[in-house]
Amino acid sequence: MAAATAVVFAPASGSATAPLFHHHRRQNYSRSLAIARSPLSSRASICCRLRPVLPSCRGYERAPLVPASDHWGNWTFLLSAAALGLLSEKRAPAEKNALAGALVSVLLGLAASSAGAVAAEAPAYRAALDCLLPLAVPLLLFRAGDLRRARSSAGAPMLAFLLGSVATAIGTAVAFRLVPMQSLGPDSSSIAVALTCRHIGGAFSYAAVCEGLGVSASAMEAGLAAGNAIRALYFACLFALAAKVPAEESESTEEGSELPLPTDNTLPAAKTAVAVAAAFAVRRAGMLATSKLAQLGLRGASLPFLTAVVVVALSIFFPSGIRKLAPADDTLVVIVMQVLFAVVGANGSIVAAISTAPSILAFAFVQVAVHLLVTLGMGRLLRFDRKLLLVASAANVGGLTAACGVAAVKGWTSLVAPAILAGIFVSAIVASVGIALVAIFHHLFILPIANVIGFVGKIVIGLGGFVTFVGIGVGALAAKFMK
């Protein structure tokens, strides 16, 4: 009952899209009959009044088969896509596993939204991102246990994140050279900066950077649609590349890896219930921290980021207690992550992105493609493990929760805790540097000077992030060789 309530009342920017289209169509149809029966002079005035209604459709010729307002229908689709993904993982042999698991869920969501079977934006998707996404990190960290064991092994993921961030910067330079997005006018460079922040620290920094740089609402929505489409294609490619990388042995007890659960007389269902209740409590603590920071004017931190910070703090100071909160197995976490990957695919309607802003779609495609090529190519030259590079790239493009999801779904348990530790630093840097500089430019300078400094600030954001990432990499190397 609680899940259904969350779906109905979950806030979403696109929650009223499908009903609005139906409403406009019925309204336009009824008014067209009135126009046919009215005199010629009144027809012109009515047509003038109706003219602003038409562009809101944005090229959609028909409503999806499962409208955005159909909560049960959308949840049925998401859970079915997740189930089919898990079934394909079970049926496909290990050596022919290119179309298995999370890749199937992403492709099903992407195909359904692009074909018009489901809506690209729906309250069910928003509820999944608002409720399930913040729960994934606590559940994963509960099983990781004492994170003090993972600190020594976080140096390599930190360097891999640094490499992925530099690869995103290179991809931005190449993409802006090939696709300058001149159709956006003055918003072109701002969208490029926002997409760069998104593909360094995840999607949660995109809206904050757009708001700070003063990007118009239409350009921001177009960039969001293009980014969602590219993200879906990216994760499909990522899981295809990760198909031949085997899972780790479950009994591994290497440093930083998942430790075996303590044996007691607690029923598995009871342990899972305790884990879910604790995850909800941690999420609530993250919400309170987010609201307190917002009251202080610090709006760059996202809910998954603060949730991860809360769990990391609990794990460091109360390692034995946090271990007792672990669920009985990874079944619940895997199901949650499969649903989230289905949401990633459903949000990435290629048709909507092409009809809205093809130039932004092309820019993001070149940017992410160069990021992936440079990350894998340079990582191979530097002798990084392939699975480490894939998890680091997922953290750059999708955020720390996506990185944890990739590691959990693929069975790379030793990378879950180090990925979260390194991903927290990445998210903190992108949010803090970008939002702080934008706040300075908008509040401490008069308008004529702010226009000039704003352009310089976009360069400083990139250089500041690069220098900070280099500092983190040097510190990680120092910690690795001095221990």
From TrEMBL:
Indicate the transmembrane segments per the record: 99-118, 124-142, 154-179, 301-320, 332-354, 360-381, 388-409, 415-447, 459-479
Q: Does the keyword Membrane apply?
A: yes
The record's annotation in InterPro entries points to: DUF819
Key words of the record:
Membrane, Transmembrane, Transmembrane helix
Concerning PANTHER family, the annotation shows: PROTEIN, PUTATIVE (DUF819)-RELATED (PTHR34289:SF3)
The identity of this protein, by name, is Uncharacterized protein
Record organism: Urochloa decumbens
Q: What is the lineage of its organism?
A: Eukaryota, Viridiplantae, Streptophyta, Embryophyta, Tracheophyta
